[in-house]
Amino acid sequence: MARQTISDSALLDTALDLFRTHGAEGVSLSQLSQATGLEKASLYYRFPGGKEEIILATLASVGQWFENQLFPALRSPGPPRKRAAKAAEILRAFYQDGARSCVTDVLSLPGGSPQRHQALQTAMEAWIAAFAALARESGLPPAAARQAAEEAVIRIEGSLVLSRVLANPAPFHRTLKQLPDLLTTR
Amino acid sequence: MARQTISDSALLDTALDLFRTHGAEGVSLSQLSQATGLEKASLYYRFPGGKEEIILATLASVGQWFENQLFPALRSPGPPRKRAAKAAEILRAFYQDGARSCVTDVLSLPGGSPQRHQALQTAMEAWIAAFAALARESGLPPAAARQAAEEAVIRIEGSLVLSRVLANPAPFHRTLKQLPDLLTTR
DNA sequence: GCTACTTTACCGATCGGTCGGTATCCAAGA
DNA sequence: TCTTGGATACCGACCGATCGGTAAAGTAGC
Known about the structure:
2 copies of one chain form a homodimer. The first copy, chain A, is mostly helical. Chain A is about 75% helix and about 0% strand.
């Protein structure tokens, strides 16, 4: 087997699922090894920095996914409300109807490395900026647009927590439905 | 040493701080032992069920704190808006201006035990119910009151995530300021 | 045969958890 | 009042398992 047995992106998708389910400290290299079908030593060949590098790569992969899937939908032509609704649909799929947690939430505990925290902060800023751009385009003044964007992220993150704890997807779904109203002037 | 060297409540306060900082899997018995000044074996004397029992006891302790501190403020006599503002102040102190995470968020990962999840769900239902009672009292119909209460919890949880990731307490503070508007008819 | 990749086998450290004690306190018996 | 014995609370030492991490030996494809 001189060829890769699993692609980087498939591997990181698997890692993402593990991390958002058990948290950073809750996932061991053995679990990662079993879930990806690669021996521990092979994981170290691909990610010499070990677990922390896998976490960082997972974060980068999620960031790329947002760049490629969510942000284009927000920037596409068409009425802002329609775009916001499309973004909500994409987010609904990403979080699997509220059944999956947000990595940004799960991996952001103060115990983490500075690099991890930096990556999360950058990703969240990009997310807020993308929301804010849409809000401005729909007519809100910059300051109000930024605040609306933060508010939207707050409600998405919060509703994910609530849906997870109550084992009920309704709060998450309701929040997504509010997204167009939140990000645009009516 | 027939007398306890540390009270249950002080011990659980210490555990709470550790858990909300590092997550359930991120806290080892050695850390717990060092932080409380009790040897591992002594922790097992106090909590024969080990780490999981300590987590459950910590959750129960937080639940009691809410019952004794937050809920009375919500039920006290006086205008509902004043009471909501008082509750916001109490929450601000509990989350140390957004610097601390919410245990309900941190300990609610799907990987946890069923009992843990049940405890978290019960606690969150109690929180929502207390908010909803205030909202009803201020004049909202039951369904709207329940929804306003959920919305309030969503925003508090979400703003804690955002403030943590951005390392900026502003979103949390702003959210608390909105609390009276959210829970009462103007 | 060289390179890219994976595997087997191993390391010391730490994990959650247990065991046999020991120190302290309090209450009952003389 | 003094002794003593049991309950309470704690601790040092240890357990097997698993942790994150490494070195060296394959193995497949160019």
